[in-house]
Every structure is written in structure tokens, then in C-alpha cells.
Amino acid sequence: MVEELAPQCSAKGCRAAAEWELRWNNPRLHTPDYRKTWLACARHRETLGDFLGVRGFLREVTEFRTTA
Length: 68
Description:
Number of helices: 1
Number of strands: 3
Radius of gyration: 13 Å
Distance between the termini: 19 Å
Protein name: Acetone carboxylase
């Protein structure tokens, strides 16, 4: 039996529960409607968003909701 892990923050070394969904794409690689997703805890929402925003990749930030 495989144990399912709870969704975690995408910040390096962080294992906190995901609270935010940062949806992004790289316009040089992806079509305008394509989205990749990083998950963030409250502590890393701003820093991950800033990282993507400076590069022009960040498209939207929404509250993360599990589909259970």
C-alpha cells in the first residue's frame, strides 16, 4: 500500500502544507493558455511569487483547495 502525502510547499526544503497555488508559464516555451503550478505555504507565497513575477512568468495566485 502506498501512503499518499499531503500537498506541500514547492519552496526548496520546505515541507509545510500547501495553502496557495501559483499558476505560471514561460512565454518562450509555453502557449499562452498553458499553466504550470507551484504550491506555496503562507511563509513562501510572496518569495515564490516574486521569483516568478520578476521573470514575467506569474499568471495568477489562488487559494489552494484539495480535491478530496
